[in-house]
Amino acid sequence: xxxxxxxxxxxxxxxxxxxxxxxxxxxxxxxxxxxxxxxxxxxxxxxxxxxxxxxxxxxxxxxxxxxxxxxxxxxxxxxxxxxxxxxxxxxxxxxxxxxxxxxxxxxxxxxxxxxxxxxxxxxxxxxxxxxxxxxxxxxxxxxxxxxxxxxxxxxxxxxxxxxxxxxxxxxxxxxxxxxxxxxxxxxxxxxxxxxxxxxxxxxxxxxxxxxxxxxxxxxxxxxxxxxxxxxxxxxxxxxxxxxxxxxxxxxxxxxxxxxxxxxxxxxxxxxxxxxxxxxxxxxxxxxxxxxxxxxxxxxxxxxxxxxxxxxxxxxxxxxxxxxxxxxxxxxxxxxxxxxxxxxxxxxxxxxxxxxxxxxxxxxxxxxxxxxxxxxxxxxxxxxxxxxxxxxxxxxxxxxxxxxxxxxxxxxxxxxxxxxxxxxxxxxxxxxxxxxxxxxxxxxxxxxxxxxxxxxxxxxxxxxxxxxxxxxxxxxxxxxxxxxxxxxxxxxxxxxxxxxxxxx
Length: 503
Fold this sequence. Notes:
The chain is an alpha+beta fold. It has helices spanning 8-16, 21-26, 62-66, 79-90, 153-159, 178-185, 189-210, 223-230, 276-284, 290-297, 325-331, 345-355, 403-409, 414-418, 429-436, 439-461, 473-479, and strands at 49-50, 92-97, 103-107, 118-124, 133-138, 143-149, 170-177, 215-218, 237-245, 312-313, 343-344, 369-374, 377-378, 383-388, 393-399, 421-427, 465-469, 488-496.
């Protein structure tokens, strides 16, 4: 735990991977298309277990699924429900072919650059029609491959210092393959590992709720041993988060010693570039023992900010959107162009309300603040705002028209200026690192990704669009000052009427 307690590593990494106008203009990085990584991890020495393709359409209204406080009829975890859960979280939902024959297979959850570095493993114990074991999910052929025979929930629960995981029907482990993202984003791609796993977790937890399956996020675990359990090569891939799925049952039986496993995997590309700073950041935020995990969870979260005396009120959030979760996920796709047509205040309020609701997790949320530039929302004057979750209201930071400024903050991308509203997620990074060590940097990026992913779902449920954008870090914090004093920019999500809506 000692390495995690030295927050200088995360602070230095954040500062050194910050985008500035100078860094963007002087970067000599180019995309090496001849070594672009293959988008799927394929175990070549293991037989496939085809998943049922006739998945549940999940007609539960998307907003009701996002409302974790809403009552959903509980269900048993079956192979069919597991297939639905995997499809709505990480499955291939559409294909786009480009001139020249190139194609991109788009997934259920958004990913920076459509690079999809997040991998999914399933530790199954009490799944109807699926033998206990550790499996890898491959979206490319929609199959499972069994990496280990037998129930591994007990050692997994021990390594997470979380006995409840031994009682869940299954635990889903999300990992990331570094090169698949650093090919484009270099060392800064470490941040993307947690943004993108956060957007996938948004889909996963929302789909689980809609299917009647309890889901709980676990962010603390012994990294080296979980990676060993998965059998991943830690210089290339690492576990990020665990999610307990399904109703609690009898605890898993004790498991024999976990042996090393190494299965043959299809190479991602003929060559790859190593980014030691990324690996150092991952290692420096690791937890070493189960006792260290317990102690880390007892860390006191940073004190909440004091709300202002006056607010800009928002309408009550809608309880239903009229679009089922399955349909929403099927139509979701990052918007590439926005019109200047406005959103309604009810649409904005609904998106803010349901995207920021807390999830069941091993550590509390609330590490990220949602700031916003409003360009075109009926009933909300143009300006810069801060959203207060508990009050469900806005604080006016600065009045005025800021389309040009918003485009500039979003790395000078027109999409940031054309959007009806742009969410800027900021965190008190130094306070978070002081409380949680370097691993707090994981938490802040993950929470921002989770909110961004839920914002996507709430937006597409209401038939408008969303897109994640990169940004000039310090310029974002400077723009929202003095309200942003002591905060660092983490993530950005733009919202608006898509010029070519997918529906």
